[in-house]
Amino acid sequence: MSTISTLKQPASFPAHLTQTSIGKKILAAVTGLIAFGYVVGHMLGNLQIFIGQDQLNTYAEALHSVGPLLWVVRIFLLAAFVIHIWLGIQLKLENWAARPIAYKNETTQQASLASRTMIWTGLIVLAFVIYHLLHFTVHSTDPRFADLTDSLGRMDVYSMVILGFSNYWISIFYLIAVGLLCYHLTHGVASIFQSLGLNNPKWQKRLDVLAWIAAIVLFAGFASVPVAVMLKCVTLPGGGM
């Protein structure tokens, strides 16, 4: 009997990405980069509320004008986010299983709090994203959103955001989730470069600083909307609430 047929064949390229730690880290980095790009774009879209109702509703109408393609993009982004969290959990479990007990304290001291809590912050943010989609996209948590239109007959996203964030509990939950997301990014941004082999010790501190700057800017941008609504700096058309 030939021994050639009994040799283990190398994994195919897609399988290699999900069956090895290096492959999982690369895929986690790529999906993390996709999610980061979406977060930046989403923040820029949200900030248009400060320009006014017409601007935000025009922006929202432009997105919805692409039809089913918008849902394709949404599903792709959500899938990237879920895959990123799933791979993060797998890598963390593998790390726990492989870590010698004798070096547990030493490893924990070297790792930052952000890196040690990546699983938990990621899961909380995922739960928030699901609720956020149900709230502002599917409109299943607030019946007032279903028939909101502006004077031009467009979906009134401007009023929707104000009505949504006028609920203090929702705003607080949003601020906590965004805070955890940005804290997650303080480690995640730098680890993306490391997983893709684009990092070196000389650049590590600079990347860490850039990650913190990005996280602070993103948090300030996202937080400004609910804070402005709660402080009544942004109100419904006509000044109502």
Q: Helicity range of the residues?
A: over 70%
Our count of helices gives 10
Content-based structural category = mainly alpha
Radius of gyration: 22 Å
Set down the secondary structure blueprint.
Elements: H1 13-19, H2 21-46, H3 53-64, H4 68-98, H5 104-110, H6 113-116, H7 118-137, H8 157-165, H9 168-195, H10 201-230
Helix pairs in contact: 1-2, 2-4, 2-9, 2-10, 4-7, 7-9, 9-10
In words, what does this structure look like?
- The chain is mainly α and 241 residues long.
- The protein has a single domain, classed as 3 helical TM bundles of succinate and fumarate reductases (Up-down Bundle), CATH 1.20.1300.10.
- Helix content is 72%, strand content 0%.
- The termini are far apart.
- Mean pLDDT is 80; it is low at 1-10 and 102-110.
Outline of the structure:
The chain contains ten helices and no strands. Helices cover 72% and strands 0% of the residues. It has a single domain (22-97, 114-239), classed as Fumarate reductase/succinate dehydrogenase, transmembrane subunit (3 helical TM bundles of succinate and fumarate reductases).
Key features of this structure:
10 helices, single chain, disordered N terminus, mainly alpha, 241 residues, 72% helix, 3 helical TM bundles of succinate and fumarate reductases
